[in-house]
Specification:
Elements (H helix, E strand, L loop, with lengths): L4 H8 L14 H4 L43 H12 L20 E4 L14 H13 L4 E7 H4 L10 H12 L3 E7 L17 H9 L4 E3 L5 E6 L14 H15 L8 E6 L32 H13 L36 H29 L5 E6 L12 H6 L10 H10 L2 E5 L17 H15 L3 E4 L7 H11 L14 E4 L9 H15 L7 H14 L1 H10 L2
Parallel strand pairs: 1-2, 1-10, 2-3, 3-6, 6-7, 7-8, 8-9, 9-10
Antiparallel strand pairs: 4-5
Helix pairs in contact: 4-17, 8-10, 10-12, 12-13, 14-15, 15-16
Enzyme class: hydrolase
InterPro entries: GH (IPR017853), Glyco_hydro_14 (IPR001554), Glyco_hydro_14_CS (IPR018238), Glyco_hydro_14B_pln (IPR001371)
Protein name: Beta-amylase
Length: 569
């Protein structure tokens, strides 16, 4: 989950903001930031004003559309267009190299509370109108959270799929593909969380009896967003291990929706930590514990994590290193130079002890991913779906030597070591997609005093996936509706980096999020144009033709959008 100061200020104001070798040191891949190749668009015509610059590009005015005079007939046009969209289309492959000529399919994240605590579809009429509008705009599909805390809420093994059965059938009716997220975390307390969905009641009961099942910092503060990976293989949940519980949940999902797998449900994103991301909960917003751009804190002080640390230290012949994690790494809202452990000169992160600890801490996270992916792959193999894992876009203090916020989150990435190649290699072993956030951000939009460099981070991740031969998918970290952000996504999704000799692109992009703001007239116009441009990437159509077609879709979908906007209020 990537953040900026604008978001922090908005949240405070009450605004609605919807391996492997741990000792390796690769200077080549990190010390010199990979460079974007200049794009070479395949256009048959190009008209550009001399004063055109890399900035906001105003959308075409609705009054210039030839459809303006046919507004009374838009409902009929909408119906005809919707019927047309039901015809078979070329299906994008989510997994594997995305060829330059095929474009990048766009999915849209559904509201977090799409299914209510009563296991029914929330705002059913609004949901139906919204899905129809998305399909008519050319969207490939939707992403939906399948909450562990809703489905298996009451008792172990008692699954209630009620609301999801109805929601998936709605998506199928509208011809939308689905990325289903196995959400094993608590909803509430992270950026953009507008609702609270706890872990299953029986899991919370076990955590109450044994607080060490929760991640813990050096001050004893517990974080209950996601169960500590230190207990992954221990039968601490009424006779089952957490990994067994995750596997049983995924297996039950497969068996219940087998008839939709490979057709409607095309991807399973496996949640592996807070916010569904493979990371430690090192920067929790809840109760004001952490504020952007603080460095966060290590989460290895529960008894299960400390037991693993003790064993690793003894195996390394340094038993004195196994009693605790670093205690000189500062607190959540410090900056790297404020701490002995993360400072650039003489910092503990770059010492022999630091290399041992960070290697162990990051490897524990990789092993957690390996365990869950092994189960996911065996469960969904030969069912026509792809597996993906989301990695957080932690871009603040990226320009420092230690990359402290990445280290506390479990990504052993520094100026002298590439921490994303081991993650990509782990995903590649299981045929999984590397899903990454903060694709919409530009370096200069972020506070430079915190050395935020999201563009350079995205390039590094793109290079890592290229080297590991693993598909890369993207998401925007924060809601953006402007052409400037859309242009950045278009550029980043092209993967114009050195070494991409085959011209591969991102295999998919998921847009945050379906809500009333998206259906506001200006935002919808920008969004439809963005979807059209993503689908037409690599085509031989000129920019003006793509924009005309996008504006046509905007007008055709106007009645649907108006209905969705009203119903979602």
């Amino acid at each position: 989950m990537a953040l900026n100061l604008t978001h922090q200020i908005g949240a405070l104001a009450g605004a609605s903001i919807s391996t492997t070798d741990t000792n390796s040191s690769s200077v080549e891949s990190v010390n010199a930031s990979p460079k974007w190749r200049s794009s070479t668009p395949s256009l048959t015509c190009k008209i550009q004003r001399p004063d055109a610059i890399d900035g906001l590009s105003p959308p075409l005015s609705p009054c210039r559309s030839p459809l303006r005079s046919t507004r009374p007939d838009l409902s009929a046009a909408c119906q005809a267009f919707a019927t047309e969209m039901e015809s078979p289309v070329l299906e994008h492959q989510v997994r594997g190299a995305q060829n330059k000529g095929t474009g990048v399919p766009v999915y849209v994240m559904m509201p977090l509370d799409s299914v209510t605590m009563n296991n029914s579809v929330n705002r059913k009429k609004a949901m139906n109108a919204s899905l129809q509008a998305l399909k008519s705009a050319g969207v490939e599909g939707v992403m939906m959270d399948v909450w562990w805390g809703l489905v298996e809420r009451e008792a172990p093994g008692a699954y209630n799929w009620g609301g999801y059965s109805e929601l998936l059938e709605m998506a199928k009716k509208h011809g939308l593909k689905v990325q289903a997220v196995m959400s094993f975390h608590k909803c509430g307390g992270n950026v953009g969380d507008s609702v609270t969905i706890p872990l299953p009641k029986w899991v919370v009961e076990e955590v109450d009896k044994d607080p060490d099942l929760a991640y813990t910092d050096q001050w004893g503060r517990r974080n209950c967003e996601y169960l500590s990976l230190g207990a992954d293989t221990l039968p601490v949940l009424k006779g089952r291990t957490p990994v067994q519980c995750y596997a049983d949940f995924m297996r039950a999902f497969r068996d219940n929706f087998k008839h939709l797998l490979g057709d409607t449900i095309v991807e399973i994103q496996v949640g592996m930590g807070p916010a569904g991301e493979l990371r430690y909960p090192s920067y929790p917003e809840q109760n004001g514990t952490w504020r952007f751009p603080g460095i966060g804190a290590f989460q290895c002080f529960d008894k299960y994590m400390l037991s693993g640390l003790k064993a690793a230290a003894e195996a390394a012949g340094k038993p004195e290193w196994g009693s605790t994690g670093p205690t000189d790494a500062g607190e959540y809202n410090k900056w790297p130079e404020d701490t002995p452990f993360f400072r650039k000169d003489g910092g503990g992160w770059n010492s022999t002890y630091g290399e041992f600890f960070l290697g162990w801490y990051s490897q524990m996270l990789l092993d957690h991913g390996e365990r869950i992916l092994t189960s996911a792959k065996s469960i969904f193999e030969n069912h026509g779906v792809k597996i993906s894992v989301k990695i957080a876009g932690i871009h603040w203090h990226y320009g420092t030597r230690s990359h402290a916020p990445e280290l506390t989150a479990g990504y052993y990435n520094t100026r002298f070591r590439d921490g994303y190649i081991p993650i990509a290699q782990m995903l590649e072993r299981h045929g999984a997609i590397f899903n990454f956030t903060c694709i919409e951000m530009r370096d200069h939009e972020q506070p430079q005093e915190a050395q935020c460099l999201p563009e350079k981070l995205v390039r590094q991740v793109a290079m890592a996936t290229l080297k590991a031969n693993v598909p890369l998918a993207g998401e925007n970290a924060l809601p953006r509706y402007d052409d400037y952000a859309h242009k950045q996504i278009l550029e980043a999704s092209s993967l114009n980096i050195e070494g991409n000799t085959e011209g591969n692109q991102m295999c998919a992009f998921t847009y945050l999020r379906m809500n009333p703001h998206l259906f506001q007239p200006d935002n919808w116009r920008h969004f439809v144009a963005f979807v059209k441009k993503m689908k037409e990437k690599g085509s031989r159509k000129c920019r003006e033709q793509v924009e005309r077609e996008a504006e046509h879709f905007v007008h055709v979908t106007t009645p649907l959008v108006q209905e969705a906007a009203v119903l979602m209020r």
